[in-house]
Amino acid sequence: MATKLKEPAATPEENLEELERNYRPFVRRDVYGTMGWEPLPAVEKVLLGLAIVTLVPIRLVVGIWLLVLYYFVCWFCTMFSDPNWAEEEQEDFAHMGGWRRVVVVQLGRFLSRVMLFNLGFYWISEYKVLQNDCRGLSRESERPGAIVSNHVSYLDILYHMSSSFPSFVAKRSVAKLPLVGLISKCLGCVYVQRESKSLKFKGVAGIVTGRIQQAHQNKYAPIMMLFPEGTTTNGDFLLPFKTGAFLAKVPVHPVILRYPYSRFSPAWDSISGIHHVFYLLCQFVNYMEVIYLPIYHPSEQEKEDPKLYANNVRKLMATEGNLKLSDLGLAEKRMYHAMLKDKYRLVMHLLCCTWFNTKLFVYSEYFLGLKFGQTIWHRGTEMISLIRFTQEEKKVLAMPMLNILIIFSN
């Protein structure tokens, strides 16, 4: 007899609701819905159609022109200058001084703001929180070693370039990108391999700490800009902070970015890059709010405990920015994306069941998870492991292959 599941299968709507409850920092709430694939009302389709023939071509041409122009500015300014090699694959021009540095920085700030204007950010609301309004902050006036900001979108980088032109921590592959690679070197970016935990990775962490200390002590050194969450959210939450920005034991400057919206959300959460850029270009006006908190000076206890330092800055930013704290991180975001992609794939695209010699063989292109309450299939010859995850428990049921044939349907 066939083995029966004790729990009834959840509907697609229930699956999506449970996903959204458990991965709230990455859930999209705009009119385009999760992953930007939701059916649109007629009015929205008309607006998109008008934007495609008017806004999009102009913004594309202007955006490419701005990028190419700044690339040639960087190329000219670095033409007779040798790069700084901190270590292998850490090439930059952050040390460049004189008129070259002035041109690169000032024109970079101006063109970054023009690029934001081209993308619909015609005005940006900036607020500064007074020293007395923030609890636990020192009254000392001292140059911070780093700017720490919540991470909502790649647009965050353009804003910070326009406001302070800092050095960023970037993926190593960015240095090899056409046009953008040289610009990132002029910014003085520190390149990391995200998944690496080797000695080389520890060396990069040392470079970041050294840069932060140098920026703190030397007003002419480029300040470091770090997103301690390590990934983007929908802008309503603050993920746990990594300690990289706080190892140097120097003051940091917390900055909070928000993107109010009515139709399309500029947050880069669960939507693909192509969809995000397309809808961003189609939206006539976008909004950005920036909250500058006072420089945060660590106590002696925080200097000795980077985790405490990071956590206290995080709590302060959450309070002042009206953000919710979440314990999720990059790993959970990737899991959420994988489940969303599986949910929207065609039935049986990934799973092919065939009968051969009275045995059922299951072929899957890769790890398959269709819902939270999660159904995960492992390859096998004699049995299939069906693993169900809930918020409270994990159940593992082993079923003989000959007793069960499941066809997935959303």
From TrEMBL:
Pathway terms, separated by semicolons: Lipid metabolism
- Keyword check for Lipid biosynthesis, yes or no: yes
Check the record and name the SMART domains matching this protein.
Answer: PlsC
Coiled-coil intervals = none
A single Gene Ontology molecular function, please?
lysophosphatidylethanolamine acyltransferase activity
Q: InterPro entries annotated for this entry?
A: LPCAT1-like, Plipid/glycerol_acylTrfase
Similarity-based family: Belongs to the 1-acyl-sn-glycerol-3-phosphate acyltransferase family.
Q: Under what name is this protein listed?
A: LOW QUALITY PROTEIN: lysophospholipid acyltransferase LPEAT1-like
Query: What organism is the protein native to?
Result: Dioscorea cayennensis subsp. rotundata
Its lineage opens with: Eukaryota, Viridiplantae, Streptophyta, Embryophyta, Tracheophyta
